[in-house]
Automatic annotation (TrEMBL):
Gene Ontology annotations of biological process type: biogenic amine catabolic process; biogenic amine metabolic process; glutamine biosynthetic process
Cofactor(s) needed for function: Mg(2+)
Protein name stated in the entry: Glutamine synthetase
Transmembrane segments: none
Family recorded in the similarity comment: Belongs to the glutamine synthetase family.
Entry keyword Nucleotide-binding: yes
Record organism: Frigidibacter albus
Pfam families reported for this sequence: Gln-synt_C
Gene3D superfamilies, A to Z: Glutamine synthetase, N-terminal domain (3.10.20.70), Glutamine synthetase/guanido kinase, catalytic domain (3.30.590.10)
Amino acid sequence: MPANLTFDALKVAVGDGTIDTVLTCIVDMQGRLMGKRFHAQHFIDSGYDETHCCNYLVATDIEMVTVQGYKATSWAAGYGDYVIKPDLATLRLVPWLPGTAMVMCDLLDHHTHDLVPHAPRSILKRQIARAEAMGFTPYMATELEFFVFQDSFDALFDRGYRGLQTLGRQNADYAIFATSKEEAIMRAIRNGLYGAGIPIENSKGEAEAGQEEINVRYSDALDTADMHSIVKNGIKEIAHAAGHAVTFMAKYDHARAGSSSHVHQSLWSGGKNAFHDPDAEHGMSALMRSYIAGQLAHARDLTLCLAPYVNSYKRFVVGMFAPTKAVWSLDNRTAGFRVCGENTRGVRVECRIGGADLNPYLAMAALLAAGLDGIEKQMELEPAISGDIYQGGALREVPKTLGEAAALMQGSEMLRAAFGPDVVDHYHRAALWEIEEQNRVVTDWEVARGFERA
């Protein structure tokens, strides 16, 4: 999906006063947009070529703490600069912000101008290039779930995120009347994102009170990752403007269903879906079977890229539609990997392990790396599992904790070869920091459980 604003069109819009601000956006380790707000005239004069940022932007935690222990950056190394390089093919309007355009950017080394290897966009670009060298274009889509709350971000922050009341009061899964109650904000989200060049297909009520899902049209992997990050940021900004808060936490309440980000995938060649073979069983080509086999072989190793926080693992609960087994099936929502569109030209694999808190660049890169490894090694696909996979017995498990997933990623020869050892070590350090912080902080649960009874 090409962006909806060319550089020449931007010059015209700046000249006539329609646009006065350009956001230059990189993606941090958490998948969030970071960057600068340029005066539009300065952007078209020189900012379009490059700008700069501190290199801690891909070495901080979710609270912007400058975590120590990274090889790439530290107090000892002085926290130098990276180059922010706008990708002008991604220029687009931001309809919900007056007079504003935005552009996605890559991070480059300040001295060599090479891509920073551990920057999320760089990691995905490397795997896309690997697929293209094999003759394939990866296509993907994400289904993004989130909760909408009655009150604003500021109001909830000020009261410590207590007394959370979702905008919807009851399960509105696919329900038209119930979602009509939330339509003011959801209509603004759909139309705003569409106006930003995001090909929104639809939104729907999800399987929990106040929960929504938004779907964007299938596209090439880098475009999908960019759109995913823009969608999350846009939903937050549009909700904030309307006086509401949203959350993309994987599990904001242990009594509620979690929020996922399922990733649909296929490889294309010559304008056709290379996963489709009309003469093969289920319409699945040998290529597709090896791709899925690779993902299954490495599913546990790559889970950290799909579930990056302590909270992420609280979503994997039996009976709440989040998978607990890393196996494949045909159109079965209890499996970690589901084949959709069997016997059609749209046949694809859906990874259901990731939560809405994932970084799309890391998730897609890891899934692609595993699938390509399966193709390169011509892995044989194990039999599909059917029925209630939650009760499937001794099957390959999704890791149960962040610590388990971090250790598996750190020891993964496949990921170390695909991403580079320094990149794996970088994100392993991020996971260890999350665990250190969990172990340090006294939680509300601990106080309620032990205050009187300990």
